[in-house]
Amino acid sequence: ISLSSQHSVVRNALFCLETAADQTENHVYTKALLAYAFALAGKRDKRKALLDSLEKEAVKKDGSVHWQRPGKEPEVDLPYYRYRAPSAEVEMTAYVLLASLTSQPPPSQEELSFASLIAKWISSQQNPNGGFSSTQ
């Protein structure tokens, strides 16, 4: 279904999402989904505010960037074992990447550089068959 952003259903849905985005204690996964939804809706200010908030919560490690659930147990580095993140973390990081790249005007060089760090982490999560633990 192709609906205009002026359609009452879309307007009401965006109002609901904007109300949710204004809450102070949103989960990082919720912020990632909201940022992508606002990117698709062309709500640049909301998208940018959420991405700025998400950047503060990012895990920056080994030249890559990703997001993880609050209160998560730290990764264990073991010989001969390559840690793979749970599917929820792959999914929310992918939504942040989509939100980062879905914008008008197109992303700046700085935004593209940050997006490449996210893509680096996502690609490191591939399993030996080329897939991911995520079902999305």
UniProtKB/TrEMBL annotation:
GO cellular component: extracellular space
Pfam families: TED_complement
Residue ranges of domain Alpha-macroglobulin-like TED in the record: 5-136
Superkingdom in the source lineage: Eukaryota
InterPro entries, sorted: A2M/Complement_sys, Alpha-macroglobulin_TED, Terpenoid_cyclase/PrenylTrfase
Identification of the protein by name: PZP protein
Organism: Xiphorhynchus elegans
